[in-house]
Amino acid sequence: MRKTLLFLTLLLPWSLMAQKYASVNMEYIFQNLPDYVQAVDKLSKFAAEWQQDIEQRQQEVDGLREQFKQESYLLPDNLKQRRQEEIKTKDAELRALQRQRFGTGGDLDKKRAELLKAVQDRVYGAVERVAREKNYAFILDKAASGTVVYVNEKYDISDQVLEMLGVKPGAASDASPESKGTGKTPEKKKDRQ
Predict the structure, then answer these.
(1) pLDDT tier at 175 (50, 70, 90 boundaries)?
(2) Which residues make beta-bridge pairs with 22?
(3) What is the pTM assigned to this prediction?
């Protein structure tokens, strides 16, 4: 067992040196895909509507609390208790709605998966196709924090992935050269009249 482990430990650096590597900037790719940008916009609209609903319900609960505070000294004990229970119930319903909408596995997560999964699958498929065509052993995402310390730009295949997806690299009007990290400037469209 130890001999096998030692052999693998010694063999691994040699085998890694023979491998081809490339990097990709997934953030740049997604920012340049119109259907991904549209899906993110839709997701933001759902989240804003749900947040507005929660804030409205919170105002209702706060209003009930304030009303109870003002009237509590006039109410008999049984009515006080009923009002307190009503406020507790509304507050619990509000917290449950917050978890349902924004909690782990909640509506926002489900909507994100529904809207973004198909686009993400296409992108990861394109990365895999480029890797197979170019015979890369590893593709590293330089946009993911902590994943890559340095990448020579000649190994960045982000533009090739966009081309595989049928999108002209740098076509997004708001994509800055810094977001890709290559120093390339996006091509500007010529005015046609």
Answers:
(1) very low
(2) 139
(3) 0.63
Half-sphere exposure of 33 (CA within 13 A, CB side): 26
pLDDT band at 90 (very low <50, low <70, confident <90, very high): very high
Nearest to 28 by CA among 158, 139, 130: 158
Q: Which pair of tokens denotes residue 8?
A: 């693998």
Distance CA 18, CA 25 (A): 23
Q: Which helix (H) or strand (E) holds 120?
A: helix 107-134
Token pair 């008999």 in the structure block, residue: 76
Question: What integer pLDDT is reported at residue 182 of this predicted model?
Answer: 43
Alpha-carbon separation of residue 79 from 71, 83, 115 (angstroms):
11, 6, 48
Cβ atoms of 106 and 51 within 8 Å: the answer is: no
Write phi, then psi, for 23 (nearest 5 degrees): -120, 160
Contacts for 128-137: CB closer than 8 Å, 24+ residues apart: 129/164, 130/22, 130/157, 130/160, 130/161, 130/164, 131/22, 131/157, 134/20, 134/22, 134/160, 135/20, 136/20, 136/21, 136/22, 137/19, 137/20, 137/21
